[in-house]
Specification:
The protein is an alpha/beta fold. Helices cover about 40% and strands about 15% of the residues. The longest helix has about 35 residues.
C-alpha cells in the first residue's frame, strides 16, 4: 500500500469529509423538524365515540318511531351536539325529537343527577332505566 501525499488528494478527502458532515447535519435538522410537525399535528386527546353512552337503550324502543331527547346541555356546543347526533345514530331508526313535542318516551342526557331530576319533573315523566353512563330512559306520566 502506498499513501499518496499530493495536494489534490488531501483536498478531495477534506471535501468528502465536509460533504458528509453537511449531509449529516441536514438529516438531523430535517428529522427534528418532522418530529416537531408530527407533535403539532397529532391530537392531544383521542376522540371517543360519544354514542356509546346510548348503546343498549335501543332494545327498549323497538315499537317506537319518535322519542323525546332532553338535556340541560347547550346543543349549540360542539360536544353536546355531537352526543345528540351520535345518540340519533345509535338509536336509529328511532327519531330523537328535541322540540318538546308530546312523546311517550324520553332519553335524558343531563350533566348531573339533579339536572336529570329537574328534567323529569319538567316533563312529568318517570324513569324506567338508567344505564352505566347515567343516560335515563323515561316514560311520560299519563295526564290525570
Amino acid at each position: 500500500m502506498s499513501i499518496v501525499t499530493n495536494g489534490d488528494n488531501i483536498m478531495t478527502i477534506k471535501h468528502i469529509h465536509f460533504k458528509t458532515l453537511f449531509l449529516a447535519w441536514c438529516f438531523i435538522f430535517i428529522s427534528l423538524n418532522v418530529y416537531q410537525l408530527y407533535k403539532k399535528l397529532s391530537p392531544e386527546h383521542t376522540v371517543q365515540f360519544a354514542g356509546l353512552k346510548f348503546s343498549g337503550l335501543d332494545k327498549y324502543l323497538k315499537n317506537e318511531t319518535h322519542i323525546g331527547y332532553a338535556t340541560d346541555l347547550d346543543l349549540k356546543e360542539t360536544i353536546a351536539l355531537a352526543e345528540y347526533e351520535q345518540a340519533q345514530y345509535v338509536l336509529a331508526p328511532v327519531i330523537l325529537d328535541v322540540t318538546g313535542k308530546p312523546n311517550n318516551y324520553f332519553i335524558l342526557n343531563c350533566s348531573t343527577e339533579v339536572a336529570a331530576l329537574n328534567k323529569l319533573k319538567e316533563l312529568n315523566a318517570t324513569p324506567l332505566l338508567r344505564n352505566q353512563f347515567g343516560v335515563i330512559l323515561a316514560l311520560r306520566n299519563k295526564s290525570q
